[in-house]
Amino acid sequence: MENKAVVNKIIHFSNVDGPGNRMAIFFQGCNINCVYCHNHETINKCINCLKCIPGCPTGAIKEVDGRVVFDEKLCIECDQCIKVCGYSASPRTKEYTVEELFEVVKEFKAFIRGITVSGGEPTLNAAFITELFKKVKPLGLTCFVDTNGFFDREQIAGLIAEADKFMEDIKAVDQIEVLCGTKMKNNLDNLKYLLEQNKVYEVRTVITMDYMDVENTLHTVAGIMKDYPEVIYKLIRVHATGLRDEQKEKLQGRIPSEEYVKLLAEQVKEIGVGKVELIL
Ligand code: SF4
Ligand code: SF4
Question: CB of 280 closer than 6 A to ligand 2?
């Protein structure tokens, strides 16, 4: 059977998804649901309820045989459809074969240093991405995976072998169920494993008060990362811009001050992390 995957969007040139100019490919589907998720429309695959169609101002989405069909050329990216969708999905996705997605990468290869797969959670499409990486690497491009850290190492062994580097979130080391809506707890073990394999480019934690024990999380991660001085630890101050109303409500009073995040960065450096970056 042909290996296919649903892609939410492709950013042809990104300088925030790993080193250099990169193509960022966002796969549809996620295995967690974070309080502060800024890509809610990537969580689920569309169930063709068709409720988003009437609100589209340009007719870019329409019904064909009971399914929603998207015409990219008509879309003005007003985001009305994803605001209406109560299923955390998007009608603006596109299904690709490995060969089709490889052709997109090939078209831009002269202008990028590599590709980064993101989501959603890209490891849910591990077999597809492994095949894609096998084709992309001979072009001289590096292949990175941006993951939430919740994956089964054995199931994605092929992807780990093929990827140049991972960028892993450590959302928290406690209260994960409240923050991310999952019972999975393997994110820290997965980070340790990837570090041992020399497969980590960057670790990231979004600082959110109350939903996580901030200092316990940061100190635990720093204690592990101190032995890997070349790996970046990025501390991100949570923000509510662009979030849904119910998310904004949950974050009320839980956004840390810039000063506190700077203080945390100093603590992490003192523990021994070599490269600390802040997004305030
Ligand atoms: S994107 Fe959402 S609202 Fe639109 S058809 Fe799919 S599930 Fe329904
Ligand atoms: S973003 Fe959605 S609602 Fe807006 S034009 Fe595009 S398809 Fe239509």
Answer: no
